[in-house]
């Protein structure tokens, strides 16, 4: 083949000579004129006078030289060219030693800089199931289609991306790109509103608005009305039921309805009303699956719409705008200092225009907001909140990864879903996550569990209101303003501020925010505090980047819902700059300077000044990379308690070499040298690392680090990173040794491993050994944590999950165990076994421990093909023990419950419930044990299509008090008309139970009573 190519080239050269073209004495054979390539390495083939030296110029810059061979041809190989338009010029002496020139223009496709949607106005009905394909074309700065990109990260703020994630190892939804075209399948949410589809690649972000409109769904209405009227006066026995005189009657009734659908074409209404709904210490109405006997083999699904704790919920929507009465989250975001995110019951409005929006809310509440920021510990729990008796379903939890040197910067935020990602005990204030929460990421940035929730207070209900405006002017300038008002004693709390972003020129923008708070003080004097920040960003063709910022927060500034407020932000002042120069020819130069001042408490002060410079350059066709750096870090501390002042300074000189030895093997060596006499802030260390690609899907790496300080130990880290199969991950790190010192402790390692060894079997392994590395970082608690879990979820009727986690620190050892196994024995019969166990041993307190455990066995029989018999049962044992308190406590609960329903014929229905509960409480030398047994039965008989009757009996016994209750009632009903029923009943014996876990329904009538039952829908109004 090569001989044939040489022959053709010589033939072409001969033809050129014969036709006289050779008079130019220089011809570029390849690449073709006006060709387009995605590679930044090309080959240039020229024809000229044999024996002469040819010079290659790329964009008028001399790039290479070579001597033309005897056959008149020379190949410039592996020529590096910039992205974008490329002008090729070759010069060489020819006849009579004249300099001859050949020129040619080509284009090298650059990185994606433009994303063009195939559809300008994206409108999708918000019905919860409509799917729409969205296509986007990627182009570079010069309008050429980018074909080299294989995947792009997609994110949708509302709705769901259902395109399969092409790479589950990397964060975000990875969507494939084919020939520069991105195709994303989007599924609409159930609520209308504006959404942003964001595509990102190589720190380039492209955003596209999507409008989820009100769907044209039919209007539905379902409801019921019930009433009972007592006809006689005297009860059979003394009870706490309402007293009735000889001439009085007692009425009890309920009205409940639910309505949803489109009206007047453009509006959607959702409403519900229940006269008996009055959930005092609860917001929203989520369903805890643990309360509903979760059986994996059972296909039943429970959902709540129109969530509210009050009797009425009403919401009217038009596109993204809506107004509601009920439970809501304020979600006043878009700023840092005035961000306000709480859960209330009241009135909420949200108006969304094309370039402007306005949100407002008003409520009456006696609750208080608490925001806890808890450091991850490398295990899934338990994590303890600062308050107990939390308002149910008011919790909002997300994981925040913050910059280790700049904690005010949130690098990543991940919202978590209740019952799906974590479980919460509202009485005790504890959290248990489904997966371990690491203390830091791979770059040593700390991870925090940010939890905001409401809890009950003793104060009376007071008004709270707020409003948030945001808008865009001239499609460039963004402005926003927020105001919050809370009535408190002796004066009101107020929070208000403005924020904005102004693009000055291309590549230059400025953004900032100003906020002020007013908090009630002693003697009625309000304490006022301010917070403000500004940031200037400059980017010149990705060659020069320059950022500068300044921020200051008064110690008296208060925003109870601001995330990150606990990172010594109160009484802080911070400013700094970051600059970078990038050149493919000369390398990259970066520099950062920042100054931080924090006041801890009232007088304790902490000042930090840091200046660093780093240079990076690649050689040998980027096979060798070098890095040189210098950092000067000064930390000043003044502690008022001891009246001492400390001044620590570290000057660090660093260097690193990374060499790609072969296509599979690379190695690196790095060194950080503290130039001072002592390692005051950062340690001196040397590291050697190797990485080897065992296969396309498996990589092994080895790293050894030597710490040059007294008492320090070397470190060796062995790691594997593998895609065992599609959408799976195997990662592992193993640390040998550690690094200990008086001030720096051990270095940090954090990993979360996932290995899908089989399509049905997944392993998750995690290990981290963490501690504070240097005193400039966000402090890291010293601990070791190990986590192992597995999931076996085949299509067969057996599924199992389990985990074991262990954590230790200088004062405690914590063990967490979890297990869940489900069997679907045959059609309709399923059973589940669950175990959650946590044990904490306190090392400095003898044999003290704290233990929490929940053991559950549940069974359900729900036949697939018939519904004559249904039954569900549950056995649970719960224990909480704590000896690490002044009075050791123990609380045990053993619960057994069975529900059953049987319909032997179409005219007879039988239902029953048997339950028992054993309660054992112990505090110090005092103990108490109570056993409650309950049994009930109900029979309903349909005599004809119009006549029916029902009998209800129940019995409850409590020991050791020996108290008992029994009750019985009967009722005869007549169907007056469709969905309307009248009844006559008699209470043989009253029954009332303060514990709804058993009775659910009390007899609140006396002797004879009349009942009324009505079911209705939208059809009664002939609206269809």
Main beta sheet: strand number and arrangement? 38 strands, antiparallel
In total, how many beta strands? 62
State the share of residues found in helices, binned by percent.
Answer: under 10%
Question: Radius of gyration, rounded?
Answer: 36 Å
Shape: globular
Structural class: mainly beta
Total DSSP helices: 1
Overall mean confidence score, pLDDT = 79
Strand content: over 45%
End-to-end distance: 78 Å
Q: Could you name the ranges where pLDDT drops below 50 across 5 or more consecutive residues?
A: 15-24, 238-247, 281-303, 719-753
Question: How is this structure best described in words?
Answer:
- The chain is 2% helix and 60% strand.
- With 1024 residues, the protein is an all-beta fold.
- A hairpin with a 2-residue loop joins strand 48 (749-758) and strand 49 (761-770).
- The termini are far apart.
- The relative contact order is 0.07.
